[in-house]
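Researcher: Hi, I'm a grad student and pretty new to this. My advisor asked me to get structures for two proteins we've been looking at. I'm not sure of the right format, so I'll just paste the first sequence and hope you can take it from there.
Model: That works fine. Here's the first sequence with its structure tokens right after it:
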Amino acid sequence: MSEKQDTPRTGHTPGPWKVIHESVFNRDVSEKLFDARCCSIADPEVVDANLALAAAAPDLLRALEAALPSVRREANAAWKSANTTSVSERFRWTQEAERLDKIAEDGRAALAKAKGNTP
């Protein structure tokens, strides 16, 4: 097997990505990932913002993967507090737990979408 085949793929070109003249390139600018001029259907006024978001995608993905376990732990702690506190505090902790559960659910769905999986 070649070295390239032995290296696990992340599903996308590793970041960081760079925006240069309406195109997004890989970290060492040896590979053009996409060109907004040839494939953009967006309003020209938002192309730069779209490119900046696309270039940040690997960093956003990495940050979300790192943050989700903490959100899950906080949600579990909030559910525990909701079940062990006084009746007057239970509602507040339940709301917090539900809010954190929603954040975790949205994060998992976004990761699945970014990796080409169905959430």
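Researcher: Oh nice, that was easy. Here's the second one.
Model: And its structure:
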Amino acid sequence: MLAEDPSGGAVQWSNRGIIGAPHKLSLLNSYYVGETISKVLKTSITPGGRECIFYATIFGTLGVMVPFQSREVRSFFPSTL
């Protein structure tokens, strides 16, 4: 069966425990930027600093997503949920 389908999709489709597409992903987080993102980099702003996600959009907007370092810092910002 694998010789007929080198991607292995048929093997996973034949298994009734996995319903749907052969390669499943799960959504961990989503963030609405408002524009189409053209470039995403995982980098640090300063040498030796913490890593962050840097993005650029087709209209020239630049953005950075920096993770919180502790629960105390997170509790400082209000929750929108």
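Researcher: Is there anything I should tell my advisor about the second?
Model: You could mention this: The two ends are 48 Å apart (CA to CA).
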